Model the fold of this input.
Amino acid sequence: MDNKKEKEKMASILITGGAGNIGSSLLVQLAKNENDTIVVADNLLTGDVSKVPKKKNIIFIKSDVNNFNDISAIFHSFKFDFVFHFAAVVGVQRTLNNPLMVLEDIKGFENILNLSKNTNVKKVYFSSSSEVYGEPFEIPQNEHTTPLNSKLPYAIVKNLGESYLKSYNQEFGLDYTIFRFFNTYGPNQSLDFVIPKFIDLALKNKPITIYGEGSQTRTFCYIDDNIDTILNIHSGNLLSGEVINIGNDKEISILELAQMIVRITTSTSEIIHLDALEEGDMTRRCPDISKMKEVLKRELLPVEKGIRKYVEFLSKQ
Done:
């Protein structure tokens, strides 16, 4: 039986950080294959157990991947075939305020990769970040040509995580794919992030605050586009030993985003400008997603349609 047929028949999968935005959205889709067992390990720092569906083939374990005793017991109990390592301290302000907490995630890399190597995990998928690019040397930011200008602790740790994977592949043959996630939004995202935060304030007709003039640009990827890309990579066993940008490539300024959300929600919210952040607020960020488009094989959802979809979802809650 070849590997693909074996994977379709039955697999044991670990998602660390599986109670977060991307992890829980991936979980919902993976769990549709009822032959697979999916274990979620999350310390609930930013995740929420309510995002983990109650299904027979899903097991939630509150645990900290940075604690070897916590995570090793899980590995030895389930003998995973695949690991999605998405656990991390996230959120710009949180990571700026807690640099030592961010550095603790380095222990998680060591734990996950050592345990994966020692228990014959077939492949590790790692959630890196657009932050590894830092202030861009080129736009769009390409996986292979754009220098990694990591300066902040969060970005440095993600860059280090990528290096760990490449080193374990070289030394032990541990297979991997690295996802460099750009801003991804959707119904499971917490209010720490810009789109859900702006929508929440707009729906309550409260002031929306932005840093500086709001001219800094970002791209925003709807969660379905992100997850479908991951699923295609996983099911097709694609991009072994490679890095892929996962995001949208249409830039929008933060001010334009706020104005769009106010318009879509027919809000009376006032947009208030605060002093610009001293660090952590890059002027531009836009990925080269040529590789993602090849994998996804369809058009991405424009941000205005995604926001309308998000608002419609909230109206039904």
Summary: Residues 153-172 form the longest helix (20 residues). The mean pLDDT is 92. The chain has twelve helices and 13 strands.
